[in-house]
Amino acid sequence: MSKILVYTSPARGHLYPLVPTLQELRRRGHDVAVWTMAAEVDRVRALGLTANAIDLAIEAREIDDWKASSPPAALLAASRTFIDRGRHEVGDLRRAIEREQPDLLFTDVNSWGAAAAAEASGLPWAVFAPYFLPMQAPGAPPWGLGLAPLGGVLGRIRDAVLWWVVNKLYDRALRGVNELRATVGVEPFRHVADFAKRPPRVVSYTAEPFEYPRIWPANVCLVGPGVWEPEAGPTRSV
Q: For residues 182 and 112, is the Cβ–Cβ distance under 8 A?
């Protein structure tokens, strides 16, 4: 059986959907080591899994996209958060690899530094994504705008223009992303959204009924939602 190192961003919304997968891997006999936010380490250990805290400097860089004045500004703010965290994730993942000696790496889609370090490690690696992927496809409207598919020539023109706009907005963070990737010696991205294209496997926690109809790239595997939450604590009467 395999030793699997799982590395998450400091977000319960990324850890909790992963729990059923981790439990199933353990049930099948794999050794699973989870590196995640400090406040959740004991909870993960209570599930019978090995767990350790990620670098506290990663958690200290809180996401601040809610302060932005517009959706494009929020997108850039989130990207800057992932880049800033990524500078700490590179060394943190390397320390985790040295300690755990894994056969396989499974990193968070928001952990851009950890993904770069995983790619450079020479180990088999994959990424998990608990939200929709920003992947362009014929007939699929640009992500983030909530548009319905539109067929015909008009639809193709609309999608081509809006995909260009969305990618242009996202790529304002491209320099920072590629500077981060350069620190570990992996190839630069052409677009920021390439973070969902480069991994050999992307495990996406959604399903076809929730997505625009499309042909998915060979590296993307839709597995449906990961449904898990902690047991409710005791309540006090008043």
A: no
